[in-house]
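Internal tracking record. Fields below are filled automatically when a chain is submitted to the structure queue. Please do not edit lines marked as system-generated. If the sequence contains nonstandard residues, flag them in the REMARKS field before resubmitting.
Queue: standard
Priority: normal
Entity type: single polypeptide chain
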Amino acid sequence: MDSSKKIVTVQILNAFADNGKGGNPAGVVLNADELSDKSKLEISKKVGLSETAFVSKSKTEDFKLDFFTPNKQIAHCGHATVATFSYLKQIGALKNDSASKETIDGKRKIEIIGDSAFMEQLAPKYVDISHKESIILKSLGLKKINLIPNAPIQLVNTGNSFILVPVKSEEILKDIIPNFELISEISEEFDLIGYYVFAINTEYDATSRMFGPRYGILEESGTGMAAGPLGCYLFDILKIKKRNFRIQQGKYMKEPSPSLIIVDLRIENEEIRGLMAGGRGILNKKLEVEIIL
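SYSTEM-GENERATED OUTPUT FOLLOWS
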């Protein structure tokens, strides 16, 4: 059988760069209309980053975005969305400061401020998972005494599900040794992207770590879809009554890549109606990937 080959250009952008440095790299493929899901998965595998976004035409929104990890498609990805729209703005493909994306999980608004991109997330849904507290602690090598008092481990969803784990100090956060097998099992049970473990009273509103082994992401340096739930948790559960949170991530990875994610809550009558989470994307490099069609 004859198989034809195709070269696809992938832009690698660092989303949530903090002062022009660090950030979380995402792949971005423009003009992806002709690519099959199989090809998209193959490209994502070859790129090898936690997520790659594929941009194609949309009948209803400004662009259609499909997100693939190296092992499966996911509904939403904050850092790849920020990378994509920040890049589209920088290359002049976006004329306005408000845009929208179509995804397999519905439509979302995007706002551009300068060349930073902010993505709409939904009002938070909270799920009580206190009956799983001891196994969750075990999966992180933590004890109950390491948690912030009266701050429950909680599942929060603003579009994707994460388990949020509030620890007492940055020291505890830094020293976590995750059991990825156990985290995967718990993530499978609750249909999570992963865990978002965080400490407050840092130089930012919170400093966090994201473990997503179920999606082949052992640790990620900037997760917009997890920072959104954390902003909601800070407001609703810890009663930190601010509308704007600055969340640092990636500082305690084996190879540190500090990221800054800004979360803007949309509040009416003391209730979170939705939020925008975002930051800046910086073009890192371009890759040429060969696929077999």
